[in-house]
Amino acid sequence: MGDPRGFLSHGRSGPSRRPVAARILDWREVYEDFPSSQLKVQASRCMDCGIPFCHEGCPLGNLIPEWNDLVYRDDWEIASVRLHATNNFPEFTGRLCPAPCEAACVLGINSDPVTIERVELQIAETAFSSGWITPVLPVVKTGKKVAVVGSGPAGLAAAQQLTRAGHEVTVFERDDRIGGLLRYGIPEFKMEKAILDRRLDQMAQEGTIFKPSSEVGTTVPVAEIKRDFDAIVLAGGSTKARELPVPGRDLAGIHQAMEYLPMANRVQQGDIDQSPIDAKGKKVVIIGGGDTGADCLGTAHRQGAESVFQLEIMNQPPESRDSSTPWPTWPLMMRTSSAHEEGGERIFSVNTEEFLGNDDGNVRALKLHQVEQKFSPDGGMSFQRVEGSDFEIEADLVFLAMGFVGPERSMMLSGLGVEINERGNVSRDSSWMTSADGVFVCGDMGRGQSLIVWAIAEGRSCASHVDRYLMGASELPCPIDPNTVAMR
């Protein structure tokens, strides 16, 4: 504990976001630089608790007090070693994770928690800029081959761990580039894709083989995968979007969020000059109040939308932690992202009952009504219409960002013969194996829609069991059990 009085002497602070007027004109990341001298002060606020609940908040088991103290002491290289001991991709989580570790920080009981996520990010960035991130080559080659299907954070984590254990790992990705949602779901202003590419370069140098434009079950036969590999890891994510089956859903101008966001990213990759779904000069309505909805919001701002409304069926959360979610649980509270700062209006406790169209077959408005949440004695929740609360909102474009309900029912899943559980996810046992021998599953495909930090933890844990399956034993870490309940 570098400064025993750090948490008493200093308040929480972090980097500023670039001015709204400037940042909506480009797609660069929204945060200003944060000087290392100031970050050391923030790291000194860590109390090095006897029971570090931040460890419980983080499914990776990150050694947070250790690397906070190392940053305070200017031991950045050792801090990077300790950080990478539990997290393959801290530069991803440092940008994209909602930081359940901070929600569980003991200091947060009666003060502002430590800026754990920013310390994590700056350790990773310092390590890259200092040349400390180099390929970690396996000591021995096992001669075993593993296929990883899907190149999101879970698949990449599993692949890197298994490659370092000495197996020959091939990652199959149906899109034309590696990265999954990191590539085409996360907007550039939240994570520039050069950040992803430099980590993929490290993995390629370590020996991981990447095969984009390779969809198992169609372009790559399932029989070929089963024949050529000793084990298979399914990490294709939860990509079946939740639908809104109300009248008018078939009108033009209504799109799933994951039809919209990838096109904007393809513009930034230089694939196309303009997105075929462009919000410029249009009235936009986003249905769904979560992170994906906020990603659509920030994207619409940068495309020059005339107006944007973001709708949420749930009640507006309180400004501070609700008593129903006491420390150290994930707090129910109002959250404002960088996209919300940039404009638009959020409407809570509202339900869409119909899309209204014009003579051209395009959506022109949404018919809405307010709702009240009702709770039953058994803990169930329902929504009751508020009579006389009907209203309309004009719209030229509507984006559905209501989450995902499981993996797509693909030829790959049927060809492998894996079972689907009652939640609609790929079923697995305590060893991460599906109902098919030698076929494992991790990430959202097995867990259901969750957080990036859970995806990485799942990939690391699954890799440990795959290694054990292939070799009889494993030294790879296994931070979580596959039946752990996700922290949302």
SSE topology sketch:
Blueprint: H1 6-9, H2 20-23, H3 36-43, H4 53-57, H5 64-72, H6 76-84, H7 90-96, H8 100-103, H9 116-129, E1 145-149, H10 153-164, E2 168-172, H11 181-184, H12 193-206, E3 209-211, H13 222-228, E4 231-234, E5 254-256, H14 257-269, E6 283-287, H15 291-303, E7 307-312, H16 338-341, E8 345-348, E9 350-357, E10 363-375, E11 381-385, E12 391-394, E13 397-400, H17 411-416, E14 439-441, H18 444-447, H19 452-471
Parallel strand pairs: 1-2, 1-4, 2-3, 4-14, 5-13, 6-7, 6-13, 7-8
Antiparallel strand pairs: 9-10, 10-11, 10-12
Label this structure with key terms:
about 500 residues; FAD/NAD(P)-binding domain; about 15% strand; Fumarate Reductase Iron-sulfur Protein, Chain B, domain 2; 3 domains; alpha/beta
In CATH terms, the superfamily of the largest domain is FAD/NAD(P)-binding domain
**What global shape is seen?**
globular
> Residue-averaged pLDDT, rounded?
95
Instruction: Quote the CATH topology of the largest domain.
Output: FAD/NAD(P)-binding domain
Question: How many helices does DSSP assign?
Answer: 19
Q: Biggest sheet: strands side by side, in what order?
A: 3-2-1-4-14
Low-pLDDT stretches are: none
Q: How many structural domains can be distinguished in the coordinates?
A: 3
Helix content: 25-40%
Query: How far is it from the N-terminal to the C-terminal residue, by CA?
Result: 30 Å
Gyration radius over CA = 23 Å
Largest sheet: 5 strands, parallel
Label the structural class. Answer: alpha/beta
